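3.2 Worked example (two chains)
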Amino acid sequence: MKTTISFSEMQAFVAVVTEESFTAAAERLETDKARVSRIVQRIEEKLGARLLNRSTRRLSVTEVGRDYFERVSSILAAAEAAEATVAQQSREPKGRLKITATPEFGTTRVDGWIATYLRTWPKVTVETVYSIRAVDIIHEGIDVAIRIGALQDSELSARKLGDITYGLYASPSYLKSAAPLHAVDDLKRHDLIMKTASGRAVWTLASGTSRRRSRRRRDARSTT
């Protein structure tokens, strides 16, 4: 007799592996931990193989479980793609759209884009993952990833959304009491809050074709 594993069971298993926790998977699926645990146990019984190693402190995936996870993820992605195609053809998108971006850009720009999108397509549910870590787009089921900077080699489809430029700003009250500021080197005598990439406290200042690099002094503050 053939065993059949339902889509909902597959989704539960993928959630456990992705979240690395029965509790977190249950929250994601809006159910309870015991039910998710029973589903995974039922899958293992149907397959006749151990997919997860469980202990009181950690949860790990067996080699067989990892292979099953990869295949099931592909099946679910294909099913979601099929549903999305039908929804697109009906001209009324619905379902879940999972987006990732950096926390700063996500809260300042992406949130607004999502709000506008949902006013147009209210049947879509948007889930956001705002994180500075390198999110695994395939394994974590990400539909849209918004990134700033040079695009790494990838087989994923990409589209440029625009350009971001940075500038120097100071309040009039600060400038009244601060040291004169006429050249790049004068910045070393000022209190600075520097927006930098990857913690590198270095600015490259541009004026036309001219470029100057400015390093912060030791007591300046930097943010990433």
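3.2.1 Second chain
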Amino acid sequence: MIKVYSHSLGCPKNLVDTENILAGLGDAFSFAADPEGAHVVLINTCAFIRPAVEESLETIFSVAQALKDLSQKPLLVVTGCLVSRYGPGLARQIPEADLFVPISEQDKLPGRILQKLGLVLPDQSGVPRKGPFSSFAYLKISEGCNNRCAFCTIPFIRGRLKSRPLDELVLEARHLTDLGVRELVLVSQDSTAYGRDLGNRRGLAALAGELCRVQGLERLRVMYLYPSGLDRSLLAQLSEIGPPFVPYFDVPLQHAHPDILKQMGRPFQQDPEQVLGRIREYFPGAAVRTTLITGYPGEKEKHFQALLDFVRRARVQHLGVFPFYPEEGTRAASFEGQVPGDIQDKRRRLVMQEQRKNSREHLKGFSGKMMDILVDAPHPEWPGLYTGRVWFQAPEVDGITYISGPGVAPGKTVRAEITRSLDYDLEALA
């Protein structure tokens, strides 16, 4: 039995990739609690922005340092976005690693691992992904992106859109629910584009409709909805599905001023409020999450004030804000009008101050109400207390709901009263 210690960095799409690599080893492996006790250490890296690159490198060096004095060192395998972005040069910079495998070759990685260990890969055809699943799981519906935003490295790292077949996704969804998963979170680089490369213009709606028929599924949530793809036709189709489809829309707008949106190369209407207006027209009670960038090249005070006003008016439930990073290989890295880092950070803080008010006000409205809470895990420090989520809280990126009371257990959906609201979280009693 091969003991594998895995460390997945970055987004949920990377986590799914890691789980698929481990599934390729079949019954030949078990999980190791730490790198020192493993035969194989697998690090799946992120390289989307500079901090992600730095975190990936620090993780590799930290693990290599921990392993250097062992008499029998485990096989150190590095894969993911860092390898796809920077290529063969990494081997010269990080000689401690035994294998560097880009995303495009991850399907061959289980075989390469076993070959390095002097073992033979068993026939794993048709073996489903497996892993330490909880109440929710991510389902990656496509790879790559056909958009060419001026600031983004993803198309260079992961290539063009490649959708997974619908039947394959339905089978995986059934496998996951059989394992006890109650919420599926669809992820990709651009979920609204799902199926276009397969000749299906209504691919996402068709997929969501089929997945909502999977027995045992209580919630279906879609992340990474590109604004230009969220048109009236798709919204109308989604509005006809009903439960367990969750009216939660993760739409990365990135900015609100037309000058900056044009600089970003964002191919959608000049006014992002129209996108939100369409969502709320078809789903009046929808929860919306978005991301914004502060300090983009050319962002003057008037552009930032427009962004701040947008945050006040739009009142989205969830918001992530990032300073601009001039990533090597992107058009935006060479744009004129680069904004100093201290101004970027100040603007980010001001946006988040406004969003804190929005979130606090939104959550206040649920105090005293009975709501269904999907329980995720026991609290690591407080016996009897659990963490879970109401329908408008996506895993790992939004706030959570702390819940206690009889019958509360991971994987269960519990009806409970919201007893207190905080800035981003809720408290509940079953």
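3.3 Remarks
The chain has a mean pLDDT of 93.
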